[in-house]
Design a protein that fits this description.
It comes from Bifidobacterium primatium. Helices cover 37% and strands 21% of the residues. The protein has 14 helices and 13 strands. The longest helix is centred in the last third of the chain and has 21 residues, at 275-295.
Length: 423
């Protein structure tokens, strides 16, 4: 959900010259909350807030929740205080990702030149599609209509000559709107915005620019590139901001970026002090990650365990496996060993439920070194070869068992069955 500043002046009609405006940015409106309302129509018109737990943050909020001051990344406890009558629902990423895939399939009916930025937004380069369509805005209008008709969801569309302006246009078209910014007016458009509107300018950069008297993009455009570099402390960022202040963005739409990692993590309601609680969470994370790998036809070779401690400090440690895997039965024992090494615990002590040397607030597992399961060669170990006469090795049995769990979950839901393992 976008919380970028949106001055009323930029929402006006900027004209109808679509020449060169072949970049669309599509941003789903309050996506997680809208997905929940779509499958629970009785919630329509009520303030729906995605996020539960005393120490969680808000992942999304319906537009009915916005007048109460509820925004994404806000602590759920704060949201409950601001909106006590809100409907608070847990995050269901599997459901949201499934809806997202279907929505992007609609985009794919226009062009395959799509850059998926996240589960709820993406860019399209419709240059080639204009042979079949009247104009870029006609494409945007069709997408908005189809997404609402098929899924009961709304999206906002920005149409421009480059990615920066298209994204800013979609932000200022929200909710459920479309905004075209002609190429000749893109500098005028962006210079009406606060400097915080430019993607990549966070609170720290904004404070440094404010010390130079820069709070909006018009003031930024008045600075020389060297001055911006001095203000931000980065020549690379200075170049990008110098161009952005003039409505220029040289980035291309990149149709596909291979996924680099898959992970799962969770924050404890109360800081964990015993190993059983943390290893139990690691098992759940490994099960989630492994199931995702199998669903996407991938394997992984590297495991990373992430911890966040009571003082909010982070730590990560990585292990590379001898052979790629897609089973929690392989990942989990390694993740427990990594945990013990991170905390300086004797090997095997975590499995025995020892007390932790430091309270842990958050734990998670991610995998990388991803490969296509159909084409990744997996060399059998000596133990595997010895086990063939007995009907297969433990990893092979685990793989079959976990695939059976996948089938049960697909039919009865992700929480219908859980994996149980011993280290």
């Amino acid at each position: 959900m976008s919380t970028s500043p949106r001055p009323a002046a930029v929402r006006r009609d900027w004209g109808h010259d679509e020449t060169g405006c072949t970049i669309l940015h599509i941003d789903m409106d309050a996506f997680f909350a809208s997905c929940e309302i779509a499958r629970h129509p009785e919630l329509k018109g009520r303030p729906v807030i995605i996020g539960t737990g005393t120490r969680s943050v808000v992942s999304a909020a319906s537009y009915e929740a916005r007048p109460f001051g509820v925004n994404s990344a806000m602590p759920v406890a704060t949201a409950r205080r601001l909106c006590p009558d809100g409907v608070f629902l847990p995050v269901d990423m599997a459901y949201y990702r499934g809806v997202s895939r279907q929505v992007f399939e609609v985009f794919g009916q226009v062009t395959d030149h799509i850059e998926r930025v996240s589960v709820d937004e993406g860019y399209m380069d419709v240059s080639a599609a204009l042979r079949r369509w009247d104009s870029p805005t006609a494409i945007g209008a069709w997408i908005r209509t189809e997404v609402e008709r098929r899924f009961g969801l709304t999206c906002s569309v920005g149409v421009a000559s480059n990615k920066l302006i298209a994204k800013l246009a979609s932000t200022n078209a929200k909710p459920d709107g479309m905004l075209l910014v002609p190429k000749a007016r893109q500098a005028e458009f962006v210079q009406l915005l606060p400097v915080r509107s430019i993607p990549g300018i966070g609170p720290a950069s904004a404070r440094r620019l404010e010390q130079w008297g820069v709070t909006d993009v018009r003031q930024l455009a008045a600075l020389a590139e060297q001055d911006i570099a001095e203000a931000t402390g980065s020549t690379a960022q200075a170049r990008r901001l110098y161009l952005a202040a003039r409505g220029i963005d040289e980035r291309k739409v990149v149709p596909y970026t291979p996924e680099k990692s898959i992970g799962s993590e969770h924050t404890f309601d109360v800081d964990a002090t015993d190993a059983d609680k943390v290893t139990g969470l690691l098992l759940h994370c490994c099960d989630t990650v492994a199931s995702t790998l199998r669903r996407r036809g991938l394997t992984a070779r590297t495991i990373t365990v992430k911890l966040r401690f009571a003082d909010l400090a982070y730590a990560t440690k990585t292990m590379t496996l001898e052979r790629p895997t897609s089973t929690a039965g392989v990942m989990y024992p390694h993740s427990v060993r990594i945990l013990e090494r991170m905390l300086g615990m004797p090997e095997g002590s975590a499995a025995r439920g020892a007390m932790l040397p430091r309270p842990i607030r958050l734990a998670g597992v991610s995998v990388s070194g991803l490969g296509d399961a159909a084409t990744t060669p997996v060399q059998a170990s000596f133990d595997d070869l010895l086990a063939e006469d007995d009907g297969g090795s433990v990893p092979q049995h685990m793989n079959r068992a976990e695939r059976a769990l996948d089938s049960i979950r697909e039919r009865f839901g992700t929480d219908s069955v859980r994996l149980g393992l011993r280290t």
